Amino acid sequence: MTSLRFELPGPLPADVRDLLRGHLYWVAPGISRVAVSDGDPAEVVVAHDGGIGDGELLALFGKAARDVVAGAAAFAPKVVGHSGVVLAAPMPDDPLPHLVERGWAREEASGSFTYGGPLAGAMEALDATLRRRIAAFGAADILLPSLLSPATLLTSGSLPSAGASANYVFHLQESVTATERLAAACAEADGRLEMSSVPSTSGSPDTVLTPAVCQPFYRTLAGRTLDGPLLVTARATCYRYESGATQGLRRLREFRVRELVCVGPEEDVLALRERLLDFALLSLRELGILGTVRTAYDPFFIDTAARMRMYQLAFGLKHELVAALPFDGSELAVGSVNHHGDHFGRAWGVRAQDGRWAHSCCMGFGLERWAYALLAQYGLDSRRWPTAAWGYPHGS
Ligand SMILES: [Zn+2]
């Protein structure tokens, strides 16, 4: 294991440091840790297995870092509003070790957890509250799958652009050879499966785990002309592989999201998006979370990161609900409001009644991240949580 250091003009804002960390893991295989300091200059330290020479790595990192930082420098995020919540006694340290100690969260695999105790209760109560609040928009309940056809992500353009974070699902080939070789692989397994010699569909996976709740919804509208705006709400479990950037409940590989999705004429979608931004800020305030609603960007793969960030900020397409984590002064995105323009309408051939491509927007709330922010801001005693307004049984 060797480590490589380089400097960038700083200081870099926290969101840019986060974006940079996430992307540098993807520059080359064998990277085990990326750290970006908040000083000026910002020091970047990358630990790697030495499989690639330092000179080559440094050139790759330098280009990736310059692209990300250039994008960040071009636009400052625009704040829609602050929730203005005042916290009496936030937790002085990271809630996660306490949650593990109490058995409220138990890591199953890197980036996936089993939840219990008041943490599980808080996530369910939060979802029920959000669903109730979202219903006021006239959104109908639907149930959406987590297991998608690759065609869904290919048509929507999520592949290849977000291909690095996708989770591909395969199965064994239907043959005796495959089952016999798997049995041999299991016999030798030590908590880890080595399946490269087992005939399977890994070369052409027939399904992919959904990276976002709304992806399969657009497919259901393919080729249709809509009578008017369509609003639906669903909760789904989503999956994103984040390599070394996976971190506790802040950056999960498996996470639950409650979404509102709207597809319809441009004017209706734009008007709804404004209402959703108000709703997002009001939700932070009324559910007692100290945070901000502001413009943001999606973390796209490295060579398009800077371009996508500029594009999204320029057009204000993505807004995030960002909650404060007082114990280390950082922030965490707990939700987002996304305007997709006519991207999905064009991709799936969905038209508004006037014949133009349908526009779409969605609003999502990450249940794990929201609950994590709640604990960081109010502590582990559920009697102190600001949950009366959202129906959580106090003292449970
Ligand atoms: Zn969505």
Describe this structure in words.
With 396 residues, the chain is α+β, with helices and mostly antiparallel strands. The chain has three domains: 2-74, 2-Layer Sandwich (Alpha-Beta Plaits), CATH 3.30.70; 79-164 and 207-390, BirA Bifunctional Protein, domain 2 (2-Layer Sandwich); 171-204, no CATH class. 36% of the residues lie in helices and 24% in strands. It has helices at 14-24, 54-74, 95-102, 117-135, 150-156, 158-161, 176-187, 215-220, 266-286, 302-315, 343-348, 367-378, and strands at 2-8, 31-36, 42-48, 79-82, 105-109, 112-115, 140-141, 147-148, 167-169, 207-209, 230-239, 254-264, 291-295, 318-325, 330-339, 359-366. The strands form four sheets. An eight-stranded mixed β-sheet has the order 4-13-14-15-16-12-11-7, sandwiched between helices. Strands 1-3-2 form a three-stranded antiparallel β-sheet, covered by helices on one side. A three-stranded antiparallel β-sheet has the order 8-10-9. It binds zinc ion.
Outline of the structure:
With 396 residues, the protein is an alpha+beta fold. It is built from 12 helices and 16 strands.
Write a concise keyword list for the protein shown above.
396 residues, alpha+beta, Alpha-Beta Plaits, BirA Bifunctional Protein, domain 2, 3 domains, eight-stranded mixed beta sheet, 12 helices, binds zinc ion
